[in-house]
Write a structure and sequence with these properties.
The structure is a homodimer.
Chain A lengths: L2 E4 L3 E6 L4 E7 L1 H10 L4 E8 L4 H9 L2 E2 L3 E4 L6 E6 L6 E7 L19 E4 L4 H9 L6 E5 L2 H6 L1 H8 L4 E5 H8 L4 H9 L5 E5 L5 E5 L2 E5 L13 H16 L3 H20 L12 H15 L2
Parallel strand pairs in A: 1-4, 1-9, 2-7, 4-5, 4-6, 9-10, 10-11, 11-12
Antiparallel strand pairs in A: 2-3, 7-8, 12-13, 13-14
Helix pairs in contact in A: 1-8, 3-5, 6-7, 8-9, 9-10
């Protein structure tokens, strides 16, 4: 099966104490689509302006990503995020955001996308996420990612979305914020009450937690000696996870734990370079080797 | 086999936004000794004043802890720590520390302690830890815990200690501080260079990492819905771990991963009550049930 990934397709300029990296390929959908592409065919739903470099289109194509649903707005400017990391790579601040063509964008899905089975609503406004869902016939498994921004400015639309998706992915501080509960484990049942049958809380270098009808699963992160740029790691995690799930088919419950491990491994590569620089050089062999290693270092 | 536990035996007064808890049984050795006692016989090396409540002596005894090496200083005041936790239970600050009889204390081990095989130098000054080691004949496995205070005020003595122990246990911020390395995974080889063959980095609710000749092991924490008081959780973790190891005997490498899981479970009980209130009510059955659950929620 294939995965449909909708989200932002962006140019990211990332500054760290050690380097400047202007106009990298970025955005939640870019990271997630490339991550998923190692496991299965991917359809990308996004929008860019005519300033979007041809080389990035080629990069998507190199990964076999179907671009039928990537809108190119003539004369428009691509969404641009620029941010800065501190020395420890944990704190980042946004320097500038130019919405460009993403401002008010509402995707219209081409016919072949309407029958998508595995759907990843990567981080973007919940209005867009809901609009994508409106156009799908009978998806098998829908995952939504979100961020604090949407919880702050358009909570009602997030809550409407949550009633329609199978799985919500968010980070620990967002989980606490959404249900006003300091303890992440205690937050899980409250998050289920908002709709999703599956909740996945991302904790960065500390791994992730799944709460599902089968109970809890505590997933490890791949331990990295060096983090170059964590931007897109969460998107890579969920993209890799969805790609693995779609490649397996069958029961989600049977494959979700291993899917999270594969997502964690793709996310680890993402952190080792700026933007998608390392992720796009990954091979299935490299992923398999790191999965094997991760299983070894968590085995009891 | 038994475990010899040396460290602080204290009275702790713990304040949270919800309650005041004066003069609880506390101290690194108290938490670690009780934690170890669920698995094997324990010898406690510590010092208290004549103000130390009889009920706490009885509590040690109830756990079968050998008190031959617990010095009672007539007219002396027991070490007293008082601290306060913030709402999220992650940040704590010390309100008052009264060293009392622990000030300048140097333990003299009675004969039966000298042949101890499994030795836990729980958190106390490295001078005391070194002095305990000086008196041991041929220990099989020596673990030292430490804290930022000793890295700040008596680093040389810590470094001398590290050349003499098999395993160092410390938390992630202390690991970073000790070898001046922001990334915990990258800190591990540098920590080994200081002496210990085994390094265990505690990450609280995020579990722990072991680095050993057998490679890395990422151990989970038991996910808790509610943390009442995390004081002593790290001591309980390492105490439970050492108790389990001693109960198994044989090769440390064969049992260390499972020992860390047992330590994590005892630590989870510790967090559910003030001081040792919940830990001292734990049974082997309750530990076994939680271990089983922890294995289930991490299984792939």
């Amino acid at each position: 099966m294939s995965v449909l990934v909708a989200g932002t397709t962006a140019l990211d300029s990332i500054r760290t104490p050690y380097s400047e990296n202007p106009k990298l390929l970025g955005g939640s959908a870019s990271h997630a689509a490339v991550a998923a592409s190692f496991f299965c065919p991917v359809q990308l739903v996004g929008v860019v302006g005519s300033d979007f470099p041809r080389k990035y289109i080629n990069l998507y194509r190199k990964h076999g990503i179907d671009l039928q649903a990537l809108e190119v707005v003539k004369g428009g400017q691509t969404f641009h995020w620029s941010g800065e990391y501190e020395v420890n790579m944990n704190n980042r601040r946004t320097l500038e955001t130019i919405l460009g063509v993403i401002d008010g964008w509402m995707p219209a899905l081409p016919g072949p996308c309407e029958t998508a089975g595995y759907v990843l609503l990567a981080n973007i406004s919940p209005q867009v996420q809901n609009r994508v869902l409106d156009q799908l016939r009978k998806p098998k498994f829908v995952v939504a990612d979100t961020m604090d921004l949407w919880l702050n400015i358009t909570l009602e639309e997030v809550l409407r979305l949550l009633k329609r998706v199978d799985c919500l992915v968010l980070n620990d501080s967002e989980a606490r914020q959404l249900v006003k509960e300091d303890n992440v484990v205690a937050a899980l049942p409250k998050l289920h009450q908002l709709g999703p049958k599956y909740i996945i809380v991302k904790k960065g270098e500390h791994g992730s937690i799944l709460s599902s009808p089968k109970g809890l699963f505590v997933a490890p992160a791949y331990p990295l000696h060096k983090v170059v740029d964590p931007t897109g790691a969460g998107d890579s995690f969920v993209g890799g996870m969805m790609g693995y799930l779609a490649s397996k088919g069958g029961s989600v419950d049977s494959h979700l734990r291993m899917a999270m491990v594969h997502g964690a491994v793709v996310a680890s590569f993402c952190c080792e370079g700026f933007g998608l620089q390392v992720t796009t050089k990954v091979t299935q062999e490299k992923i398999a080797a790191r999965v094997k290693e991760l299983l070894k270092i968590t085995k009891l």
